Write a sequence for this structure.
């Protein structure tokens, strides 16, 4: 069953702290469904007092939690995993309802979150410290220590996956966590809170506070929150990084992207048709790993035709989901208008794609492919965040690399080719933190870490995998000497 269900009544989304759900007391924020184009629920902004209470209860719970061995913590997370798998369909329905993803995309996003959870479970068997004799009868050791109360601020485009990048690892390492989900997609957060509560996680360790920019600012400046992760636009990521860093916090803020794909004449034709089309249309293009620019090296018209055929075959509401808001649909259509007016050629026009019959009032735009785009244009440089891909024609790889390197972002880059030498040149010289070869969405799998460079990331380290451990913990170094050194 791939039908998205309209709720029978408006959903009141709650806060979750100190092990209980609370209605909230602040200003009301309405929640729209991209599928139905109507209000389906609401939240109330968390107040300063509610944040203070949450932090206070979290501090008390964390002091007890950090004393528990990793293997004891892991037993709870095994239960969390079981409940996520049991409730997969229910949670996916809610993700799609409030975000606009297809059900398959919602399930896949949650399963990627479960994969990070499985990585967190593996920490019980990792070497969490080290000890060696550094001099005769003198030993040095390090131990991994939790930070205390930490926070995670997440975007609308992955209501379950991105939070699950941070929640399991931060908690498994002994911290208490406060999660501020996007005010556009808060409903999923209540289901995730229920999962952790049912699994038996002690009260106060996992908390959800609903709100918008005012709450983000309060979290950034709260004196008892030790670290913050953020995922969103680069503009806001920098604001969060600056404000929270000035408050003495450890911050990792992931921003936007403008991801390039090098398309070479020797690219496997079927592989690139599927890989590139699925990259820019998956999640309706609303993901920081979506392909947005094709750097077409030489004659690749046959490959481009395959991309067009694949994208044209997609059915809205089934193969491709909705856009988050009407305002975003209007922005995307206007951006396509501007590209066309500037002389670009529209190879596939999503402005003309009709809405699905089952969801006539939703927020829709079809896959759009724009050819002969100027390298200095909006379509080339601005993150549009929709199912739109631009083609820039270049003579060779070197010309393409100059364009890719000039991009302010640095999230992802891919190359479609049959040549290992050409692939290696792009791997070495592209300015991106994640690179794919014949892969349109080069997201690393655990234990390899997710993270870009340049304006796609503010802070140090990565948000998942082994690269995340030093962000969510400190290393305590100990030197032992139990007796005077002996001559041997």
């Amino acid at each position: 069953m791939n039908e998205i269900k309209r709720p029978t009544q408006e959903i009141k989304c709650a806060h979750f702290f100190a092990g209980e759900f609370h209605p909230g007391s602040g200003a009301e924020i309405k929640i729209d469904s991209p599928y139905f184009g109507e209000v389906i629920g609401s939240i109330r902004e968390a107040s300063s007092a509610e944040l203070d209470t949450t932090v206070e209860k979290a501090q008390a719970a964390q002091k007890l939690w950090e004393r528990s061995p990793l293997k004891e913590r892991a037993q709870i997370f095994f239960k969390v995993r079981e409940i996520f798998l049991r409730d997969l369909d229910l949670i996916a329905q809610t993700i799609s309802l409030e975000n606009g993803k297809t059900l398959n995309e919602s399930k896949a996003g949650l399963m990627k979150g479960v994969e990070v959870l499985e990585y967190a479970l593996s920490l019980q068997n990792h070497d969490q410290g080290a000890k060696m004799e550094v001099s005769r009868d003198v030993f040095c050791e390090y131990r991994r220590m939790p930070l205390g109360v930490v926070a995670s601020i997440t975007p609308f485009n992955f209501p379950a996956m991105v939070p699950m990048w941070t929640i399991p690892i931060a908690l498994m390492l002994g911290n208490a966590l406060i999660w501020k989900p996007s005010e556009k997609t808060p409903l999923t957060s209540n289901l995730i809170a229920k999962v952790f509560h049912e699994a038996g996680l002690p009260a106060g360790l996992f908390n959800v506070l609903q709100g918008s920019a005012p709450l983000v600012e309060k979290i950034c400046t709260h004196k008892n929150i030790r670290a913050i992760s953020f995922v969103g636009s680069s503009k806001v990521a920098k604001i969060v990084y600056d404000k929270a860093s000035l408050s003495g916090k450890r911050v990792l803020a992931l921003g936007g992207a403008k991801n390039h794909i090098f398309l070479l004449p020797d690219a496997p034709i079927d592989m690139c048709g599927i890989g590139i089309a699925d990259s820019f249309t998956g999640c309706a293009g609303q993901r920081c790993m979506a392909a947005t620019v094709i750097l077409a090296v030489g004659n690749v018209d046959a490959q481009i035709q395959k991309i067009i055929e694949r994208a044209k075959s997609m059915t809205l509401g089934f193969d491709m989901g909705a856009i988050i808001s009407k305002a975003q649909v209007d922005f995307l259509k206007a951006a396509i208008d501007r590209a066309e007016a500037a002389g670009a050629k529209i190879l596939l026009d999503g402005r003309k794609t009709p809405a699905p019959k089952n969801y006539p009032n939703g927020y829709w735009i079809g896959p759009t492919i724009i050819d002969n785009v100027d390298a200095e244009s909006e379509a080339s440089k601005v993150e549009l965040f929709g199912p739109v891909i631009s083609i820039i024609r270049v003579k060779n790889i070197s010309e393409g690399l100059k364009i890719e390197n000039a991009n302010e972002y640095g999230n992802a880059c891919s190359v479609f080719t049959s040549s290992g030498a050409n692939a290696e040149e792009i791997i070495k010289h592209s300015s991106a933190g994640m690179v794919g070869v014949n892969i349109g969405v080069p997201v690393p799998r655990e234990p390899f870490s997710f993270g870009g460079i340049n304006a796609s990331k503010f802070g140090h380290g990565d948000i998942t995998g082994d690269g995340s451990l030093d962000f969510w913990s400190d290393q305590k170094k100990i030197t032992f000497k139990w007796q005077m050194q002996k001559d041997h």
